[in-house]
Amino acid sequence: MAKLLLSALFICISAIGMAAAAEVVAGHPGCLTRCGDVDIPFPFGVSDQCAINRNFWINCTKDAGKPFWGNFELAKISVEDGKVWVKAYMSTQCYNTSTGKMSYRDAWANLTGTSSWLSDTDNRIIVIGCQTLAYMTSDSYVIGCSSACDNKVSKLTPKNDSCSGAGCCEANIPKNIQYYQGYFNEGYNTTKIWTSSPCSYMAVMETRAFNFSTTYLTSRVFYDKYKGGVPVVYDWAITAETCMEATRNKNSYACISNNSQCIDNLTNGQGYRCKCSNGYEGNPYVKDGCKDIDECLNNVTYPCTGICTNTLGNFTCSCYPGNYMMNSV
Ligand SMILES: *[C@@H]1O[C@H](CO)[C@@H](O)[C@H](O)[C@H]1NC(C)=O
Ligand SMILES: *[C@@H]1O[C@H](CO)[C@@H](O)[C@H](O)[C@H]1NC(C)=O
Ligand SMILES: *[C@@H]1O[C@H](CO)[C@@H](O)[C@H](O)[C@H]1NC(C)=O
Ligand SMILES: *[C@@H]1O[C@H](CO)[C@@H](O)[C@H](O)[C@H]1NC(C)=O
Ligand SMILES: *[C@@H]1O[C@H](CO)[C@@H](O)[C@H](O)[C@H]1NC(C)=O
Ligand SMILES: *[C@@H]1O[C@H](CO)[C@@H](O)[C@H](O)[C@H]1NC(C)=O
Ligand SMILES: *[C@@H]1O[C@H](CO)[C@@H](O)[C@H](O)[C@H]1NC(C)=O
Ligand SMILES: *[C@@H]1O[C@H](CO)[C@@H](O)[C@H](O)[C@H]1NC(C)=O
Ligand SMILES: *[C@@H]1O[C@H](CO)[C@@H](O)[C@H](O)[C@H]1NC(C)=O
Ligand SMILES: *[C@@H]1O[C@H](CO)[C@@H](O)[C@H](O)[C@H]1NC(C)=O
């Protein structure tokens, strides 16, 4: 989104393109707005003075300038959508040739007490294996699925890009999850078929980032691809308060930009976030962060076949002299 906006600005008004680039990642004065390859816009920040509250601390000194959000390596922040992308470990169940048994590594995450929740719309539980039953357990849920390959009882042929029980299965994630732990049912294992299929995997990960490949069953390709962690999306709120509660405390209320508003009808988790009012875009959490959208620069989203005139928060589209009047959008 920010990239699209930038390229539009560079094409149309290249003279002020640089100013716009600096403003896209609005941080607090004196605070880093970038750590490694990742933009760190306010309400996130690299210290307690730079972040709006503890939930938004990014540790940029933990590991060679890579940003960390709690225990997770941070990959991306979206202020507009109220989401963060992190890298998390997967769970593995592998045949151990030195012991002749299965070795387990169960991944977990615990954000209890924060104002962030595993995104139910962006993530899914993915299980990969030829004789595998794995789950995600949470405080109030056990969700998982089983995956199998060709064997005596079933004729399941794993296919590339297909994850529906043959070598791969997936399950949806409920709303309001802050804690989870991965588990394998040990009764399902690959001790008998380890030469062709040594490992099974379970990952809670971003649905869009996953594509099943049959090579995942027979080699380390899947594990190696996500060695640094699978992408996971979390939804965040500023605090767990409603907008009405949050506005009572003027000192901590986060929606401080002109032309911003508060939203608390979140579909996952609870609390409030800020957004720029219609016709504005930018960062609602910083002073004057919401900028007027010049609709006339984008005739795809805002079509106007006549004379386009930008106004604050809107635009008008009037017809050329001699033409019929047209409605503005
Ligand atoms: C970042 O992590 C390092 C190493 O774990 C720790 O010493 C430091 O206090 C952390 N900084 C912040 C701001 O949390
Ligand atoms: C195999 O098992 C041994 C003994 O428990 C352990 O030290 C080793 O790390 C295991 N290897 C793998 C690849 O898990
Ligand atoms: C998760 O974290 C919370 C808060 O730190 C803690 O009280 C709880 O015991 C943790 N849950 C698990 C299962 O470790
Ligand atoms: C799936 O795709 C991989 C390459 O990505 C290929 O090596 C493999 O043979 C394909 N599997 C099948 C069953 O076609
Ligand atoms: C592997 O699964 C078989 C059943 O398929 C079970 O009898 C065996 O105990 C399991 N092995 C381990 C190490 O869990
Ligand atoms: C997954 O595979 C399909 C079909 O090959 C492709 O269209 C899609 O872009 C792939 N997605 C990812 C995330 O690689
Ligand atoms: C923001 O709003 C305040 C109060 O309405 C006004 O004084 C100020 O000029 C506005 N700033 C901008 C950049 O529009
Ligand atoms: C929440 O409210 C905003 C503005 O009032 C609206 O645009 C949005 O669609 C609502 N979202 C949900 C999930 O109801
Ligand atoms: C923009 O103007 C049109 C036409 O006057 C109106 O229907 C629309 O609600 C306005 N949009 C905003 C965001 O004010
Ligand atoms: C949109 O703008 C581009 C560039 O200014 C122009 O080439 C194109 O014809 C316009 N499209 C419409 C539908 O007005």
TrEMBL record:
It holds the Pfam family GUB_WAK_bind. GO terms for cellular component: membrane. It comes from the Eukaryota. One of its GO terms (molecular function) is polysaccharide binding. It is a single-pass membrane protein. InterPro entries: EGF-like_Ca-bd_dom, EGF_Ca-bd_CS, WAK_GUB. Residues 292-329 form the EGF-like calcium-binding domain. It is found in: Membrane. PROSITE patterns: EGF_CA. Residues 1-21 form the signal peptide. Keywords: Disulfide bond, Signal. This is EGF-like calcium-binding domain-containing protein. It comes from Oryza meyeriana var. granulata.
